[in-house]
Structure formats: structure tokens, C-alpha cells
């Protein structure tokens, strides 16, 4: 029997689009209706999506559906109030990130409202899913810390009990054809993240400068999604590599052609993360699926996917730079000996995860039917 699913993505960033398209491809027997809002004007999008949809897409929202699937950016509690028809179907909320653990930039106004919206949406959900334990743990801790600071009539224990049934189910990745890396005397390093402050451009610059000072023979590919305003460290990274006697710059900038991007991944030895935050690290996982060896910090979500041999440690900043430099040096030596390690992420492919999503959806439908709502 076909399951009619209404999917709401209130801030349809690249990882959100990837998740949703993966579900559409890999879950059979589902009829999808999708409403998505573009990933811009963050504060308005976060607070205004319920008003936008309720006023502009009411006919779609009041259609016949078996299940509502919403991202955590959706103002679910308000939307259900504005469109009562949505209260008659079960819902599942998916957290790609949470606003308690998301680092603020200098351009953002400090506000507790994004956190409150995350909390209200989670409490309004029949089922909450997170893409990593790191995401879930920081959300739970953040909610409890916020509630502890409020003055009175705070349902702290009740909220914790309500959210205790949340589970972890990562975004799936597609298998890639991992080509054999050619041997050689130089190490090819990929950095393939959004060109924004939260991906650690300062740490990337510090590591590039350390590689230059050490004289490591490293070829960098600095790629990833770019925006109109970019942290100035990227220009400094480019200049450091271009004037270096030991470093090389193979790719620099966004690779918009999908085939060219896959080719870039398949030609690199190592994928590097310097992130301040990552709730799952899809860019790293995609590169690992293409055969890259991860070099990632020993924090955030990475301990869930990769063993200790792939994680550099030390305090954020100088200690991490030294540890990452040591790991890159080790990978270079291993490449020369043709002994680069392999990293297994079989459990993160859609083939493994799609049946688990299907099971979650079926369970939500069964529990809703059982409740007689």
C-alpha cells in the first residue's frame, strides 16, 4: 500500500536536500509531496515558515496524507495551530543540526529564539530523529540547560521525559566507485566543506602554514559550497600555498559539475576536516566513500564514524594543529610505502539505512492508528 508523505523542509540547505532526495529514491511505496523554502534569511525563515506555508500553501497542507515528515527548522507547533488538518496525521521530525550546539558568528544577533523553536518543534513531534548521537546529546543537554535558567512554571522533567524516546538515524550516503590512487611522493589532501566560519577556516590556515613550515610535499584541493561573503582566511590559504616551495594547489573553489567533483574526490588520498561544528559530516563521509582516508578532529560527531587512528586530538587551536600535522605527515609516509589504511563506513549507506527509515515511518503510522486519533 502506498504511504502518502508530506515532507516539509523549512530551510532547504544542501544536506537537507540530499537527505530528502535520498529518502525519495530509496524508500519504495511512498508518494511524496514536498514543500521546501530556500536556505536564506535565516532568522525570518526560522520564525516565519509556519506563516508563509499556512497562508501561501494551505491547499497543499490540507491535502490527504498518511504522515508528516518535517525538518527541525519547521515551526511545527505554530504550523499545526494555523493548519488544524495537520494535527490529524502522525508526524516525524528530523534534526540535521540543533541550535544549542551551533556556533554563532560575529554577524549573528545573540538570541534564544532559535533554541526555543527547536524545543517547541521537538515537543510537538510524535517522533524525533537525529542524525548523530552528538546531535542528540547536545540538544538534550542544551534543552535542559535552557529550562534550568527559566524563572518559574518550567516543565523540566516532563520535557526530558517527552524527548527520551528520540532516536539516532543518520543521513544515508550513496556508494561511490573508489579508484586506485596512483603512487607517488606527494600527498593529496581534500578539504571539501562550506566556506563559512563554522567549518574552521582559521584552523585550516594554521594547518596549511604548519605544512609549509614543515616542508611537507602536499597538494591541496580546497573545494566546497561558496557564498557571496567568505571568511578572509581562504584568500590567505591560497596565497600561502601558491608561494610555497613544498605545497601545491590542485583545486580551489566550488566545483559545480557533479562528475568533476566526484573525480576530485576519487583522486585525493586524504579528506581533512577542521570544523568547529559538524553534526554528521556528510562531506567527509562522501569523500571516504570515494576512497579517501579521513583526518578529522577527535570531537563533534566523528568518534561515531571513525576509529582513533583517523582522529587527531589536542586542544582546539594550536594543539589540534600540531596533532593534525603529525597525522598528515604519517599519511604521507604511508602513501610512499603504499600502506594507507582503509576506512569502513558500510553501515552509513542508504542500502542499510533506508529500511530503518521505513520502519520508523511504519511505526509512527501504527501507533497513530492504535491511539485512535
Structure report:
The protein is built from 13 helices and twelve strands. Helix 2 packs parallel to helix 4. The chain has a six-stranded parallel beta sheet with strand order 2-1-3-4-5-6. The chain has a six-stranded parallel beta sheet with strand order 9-8-7-10-11-12, with helices on both faces. It has helices at residues 14-26, 42-56, 58-61, 76-82, 113-124, 133-149, 156-163, 201-214, 233-242, 258-266, 282-289, 318-336, 350-371, and strands at residues 3-9, 30-36, 67-71, 91-95, 127-130, 167-168, 187-192, 218-223, 248-252, 270-272, 293-297, 311-312. By secondary structure, the protein is of the alpha/beta class. It has two domains: 3-172 and 350-371, Rossmann fold (3-Layer(aba) Sandwich); 187-347, Rossmann fold.
Rg, Cα atoms, Å: 22 Å
Which runs of at least 5 residues are low in confidence (pLDDT < 50)?
Answer: none
**Global outline:** elongated
What's the CATH class label of the largest domain?
Alpha Beta
Instruction: Indicate the CATH topology of the largest domain.
Output: Rossmann fold
Largest sheet: 6 strands, parallel
Q: Look at the structure and name the CATH superfamily of the largest domain.
A: Glycogen Phosphorylase B
Our count of helices gives: 13
Helix and strand pattern = EHEHHEHEHEHHEEHEHEHEHEEHH
The overall pLDDT, averaged over residues, is 94
**By helix and strand content, what is the structural category?**
alpha/beta
CATH architecture of the largest domain: 3-Layer(aba) Sandwich
Organism: Spongiibacter nanhainus
Enzyme class: transferase
GO molecular function, one term: tRNA-queuosine(34) beta-mannosyltransferase activity
Keywords: Glycosyltransferase, Transferase
Amino acid at each position: 500500500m502506498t504511504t502518502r508523505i508530506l515532507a516539509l523542509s523549512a530551510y532547504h540547505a544542501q544536506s537537507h536536500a540530499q537527505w530528502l532526495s535520498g529518502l525519495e529514491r530509496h524508500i519504495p511505496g511512498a508518494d511524496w509531496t514536498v514543500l521546501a523554502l530556500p536556505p536564506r534569511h535565516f532568522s525570518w525563515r526560522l520564525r516565519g515558515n509556519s506563516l508563509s506555508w499556512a497562508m501561501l500553501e494551505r491547499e497543499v497542507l490540507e491535502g490527504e496524507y498518511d504522515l508528516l515528515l518535517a525538518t527541525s527548522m519547521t515551526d511545527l507547533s505554530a504550523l499545526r495551530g494555523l493548519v488544524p488538518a495537520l494535527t490529524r496525521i502522525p508526524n516525524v521530525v528530523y534534526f540535521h543540526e540543533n541550535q544549542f550546539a551551533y556556533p554563532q558568528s560575529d554577524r549573528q544577533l545573540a538570541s534564544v529564539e532559535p533554541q526555543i523553536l527547536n524545543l517547541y518543534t521537538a515537543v510537538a513531534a510524535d517522533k524525533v530523529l537525529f542524525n548523530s548521537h552528538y546531535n542528540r546529546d547536545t540538544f538534550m543537554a542544551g534543552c535542559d540547560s535552557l529550562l534550568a535558567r527559566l524563572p518559574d512554571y518550567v516543565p523540566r522533567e516532563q520535557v526530558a521525559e517527552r524527548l527520551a524516546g528520540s532516536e539516532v538515524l543518520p543521513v544515508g550516503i550513496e556508494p561511490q566507485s573508489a579508484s586506485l590512487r596512483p603512487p607517488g611522493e606527494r600527498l593529496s589532501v581534500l578539504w571539501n566543506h562550506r566556506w563559512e566560519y563554522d567549518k574552521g577556516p582559521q584552523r585550516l590556515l594554521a594547518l596549511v602554514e604548519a605544512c609549509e613550515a614543515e616542508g611537507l610535499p602536499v597538494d591541496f584541493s580546497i573545494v566546497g559550497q561558496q557564498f557571496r561573503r567568505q571568511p578572509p582566511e581562504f584568500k590567505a590559504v591560497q596565497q600561502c600555498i601558491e608561494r610555497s616551495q613544498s605545497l601545491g594547489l590542485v583545486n580551489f573553489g566550488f566545483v559545480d559539475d557533479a562528475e568533476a567533483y566526484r573525480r576530485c574526490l576519487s583522486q585525493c588520498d586524504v579528506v581533512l576536516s577542521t570544523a568547529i561544528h559538524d553534526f554528521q559530516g556528510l562531506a567527509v563521509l562522501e569523500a571516504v566513500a570515494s576512497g579517501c582516508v579521513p583526518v578529522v578532529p577527535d570531537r563533534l560527531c566523528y568518534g561515531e564514524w571513525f576509529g582513533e587512528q583517523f582522529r587527531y586530538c589536542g586542544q582546539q587551536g594550536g594543539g589540534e594543529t600540531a596533532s593534525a600535522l603529525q597525522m598528515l605527515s604519517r599519511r604521507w609516509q604511508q602513501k610512499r610505502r603504499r600502506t594507507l589504511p582503509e576506512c569502513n563506513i558500510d553501515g552509513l549507506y542508504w542500502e542499510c539505512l533506508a529500511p530503518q527509515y521505513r520502519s520508523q515511518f511504519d511505526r509512527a503510522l501504527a501507533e497513530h492508528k492504535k491511539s485512535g486519533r
